[in-house]
């Protein structure tokens, strides 16, 4: 590892180790982020909302193969609770509800796009 990246090593002292491994350390923050996006359909929802500014649940059902209404609703609620998407209910009959990324959801997308690029590069490198 070159000297410019030594700050990324896990600290060895007990006091320093908490900065990485403690309850408020890097590992805890990344784990919290991964929990927000874990779920079979959450990434698909986030990427669809990233490509289209706003979508209704019926559009998401059509665009994401094999997702059930129940699972879509569950994942949408979890993403909303985590502050990654915003749900707008227009209070109309028939019901009209739209979903869009929040600012926090938008801020997460470069990380997900970088993960996608890493996966593509890794796949090419291992072939």
TrEMBL record:
* Annotated ranges, domain HTH hxlR-type: 20-127
Transmembrane segments in this chain: where? none
CDD domains documented for this protein:
HTH_ARSR
Q: Cite the SUPFAM superfamilies for this sequence.
A: Winged helix' DNA-binding domain (SSF46785)
Q: Could you confirm whether the keyword Lipid metabolism appears in this record? A: no
Q: Which UniProt keywords apply?
A: DNA-binding, Transcription, Transcription regulation
Give the superkingdom in one word: Bacteria
> A Pfam family in this protein?
HxlR
Extract the PROSITE patterns matched here: HTH_HXLR
The family database entries (InterPro entries) matched by this protein are listed as: ArsR-like_HTH (IPR011991), HTH_ArsR_DNA-bd_dom (IPR001845), HTH_HxlR (IPR002577), WH-like_DNA-bd_sf (IPR036388), WH_DNA-bd_sf (IPR036390)
For this entry, the protein name equals Helix-turn-helix transcriptional regulator
Q: According to the entry, what is the taxonomic lineage of the organism?
A: Bacteria, Pseudomonadati, Pseudomonadota, Alphaproteobacteria, Hyphomicrobiales
